[in-house]
Amino acid sequence: MIEKIIGVAAYILLAQLVGGLLDGLDRKISARMQGRVGPPLLQPFYDVRKLFAKQIVGVINSSQAAMLYSYLLLMVFSGCIFFAGNDILMSVFVLSTASLFLYFTAVITGSPYNSIAASRELIQIMTYEPAVILACVGFYMASGTFNVSGIIHSDMVMITRLPGFFIAFVFILTIKMRKSPFDVSTSHHAHQELVKGVTTEMGARNLAIYTVAEWYEVVYLLGFVALFVINQQWWSFVLAVVVILAVYFLEILIDNSSARVKYGAMLKWTWAMTLLAAGVNLLILMLIR
């Protein structure tokens, strides 16, 4: 019980800090790749503080704010389930529900830009969900439990039996982290600031709430990646940190070396990767059980 409380408290208090630092690291590395100096590492925190401090001079969209707060709370709740060591499948379902509230946030404004972005957000959800669900099934077949704590306390490193699931999950991380070439509903790049997908009609404070929710989601997703390599051995936690940093750097590299593709290509490529990598891995697990 104490371990669960510590896990939940650490996620609630530290995930936004870690997520903001990773966002700043992303900007810094991206700038270096593009031959620029880049902003300070703490720039994302300065931006969020500035957004919260802005004076509200227009009509407050209370419905949009309610949807965004629901998005943030569900994102935090899904992470709490995960880092408490509870059912990973339930955690993923709550995460999917949070994504739907982001869709509602976009369509509720009535903006044509937001409406198009909202439809693309639904396509993104439909694209990456099979890989996420299959990863949960893979963990169950390899460890015999859906509980995160049970998976962590197993004797094996999960990636040795789930390499295909790992490849498929890392592939869909590009969609979940909204990076090129799959940033079809919104992006974090400056050149898309005027017409910026689902965040186009967000006011200052609403945009700050969205940004903090994204930080929580990034930490959750990287924790999911760590689950592939963590077991009851102490050295597996060191290995998990190395794998997380390598995967995050890979996503930054892909983001800075790829152009956006159409949503149809994203759907076909992702489902093909999910079927070939995770699907084949699942069949092998079923045969060797």
Question: Could you describe the 3D structure shown?
Answer:
There is one protein chain. By secondary structure, the chain is mainly alpha-helical. It has one domain (2-288). It is built from ten helices and no strands. It has helices at residues 2-33, 43-53, 62-83, 88-107, 112-143, 148-152, 163-176, 204-226, 235-257, 263-288. The protein is globular. This is NADH-quinone oxidoreductase subunit H. The chain crosses the membrane at residues 6-25, 66-84, 90-110, 131-152, 158-175, 207-228, 234-254, 266-288.
Helix-strand blueprint:
Elements: H1 2-33, H2 43-53, H3 62-83, H4 88-107, H5 112-143, H6 148-152, H7 163-176, H8 204-226, H9 235-257, H10 263-288
Q: Give the amount of beta strand, in percent.
A: under 5%
Q: Structural class, please?
A: mainly alpha
Total domains: 1
Q: How would you characterize the largest beta sheet?
A: none
Distance between the termini: 32 Å
How many helices does DSSP assign? 10
Report mean pLDDT, rounded to a whole number. Answer: 90
- Computed over alpha carbons, the radius of gyration is 19 Å
Helix content: over 70%
What is the 3D form? globular
Number of strands: 0
**How are helices and strands ordered from N to C?**
HHHHHHHHHH
Low-confidence stretches: none
